[in-house]
Amino acid sequence: LATGPRQNNGIFYEIRTYDIKPAKMKEFLEMINKYLHFRTAHSELVGFWYSELGAMNKVFHIWKYDNFAHRTAVRRALANDKDWQGKLFSEILPLVEKQHNEVAYLVPWCQLGKPSKEGGVYEWVTFQMKPGGPALWGEAFQAAINAHISTGYTKLIGVFHTEYGLLNTVHVLWWNESPDHRAAGRHSAHEDARVVAAVRDSVRFLESQQNVLLIPLQCSPLK
Question: What is the mean pLDDT of residues 80-100?
Fold first, then answer.
């Protein structure tokens, strides 16, 4: 009767997406690179990126928390941090048009990975799956991800399943050496029988999909 594999611990990831005013993107990125250490003093940043293709003037950042009590304590501490409030938060807020956040868990069959080297690009793929959760589409989705991994052209960083936000959403973060390396790998994958079969099985449960090419900021732990 279970709806999916059991979550083994309380660790979760807050995924934040900001729409930045187009004329202010350069200023926003400079501020983040210069002063984000005031924020990372309070909790662990997984990565910070800006969109290059697939979305305009967006930034994505992922924060790791031990549990919800941990996040509450961090937010309380930030509210009382004069450096954070005065030197970064109050300065970037006028540059932001819209904020969106989600809470997600890593799927049980995925560990958070790292790229083999610095200097590549990231791909953020959002899958909106049919209602029903992993009990319905989990095995087929995992098989499709593993089929792409088996081709060797891309590196899996993480697979996140939403807990708060739009449900039945899965975000997959990939790393590639370059956009051209990714494009060549994708073309080859489309002719790989393993990938074709796995994707045909998994799309039965797919509502929509969006891909965004991301560039890591200088201050991002994942580069």
Answer: 95
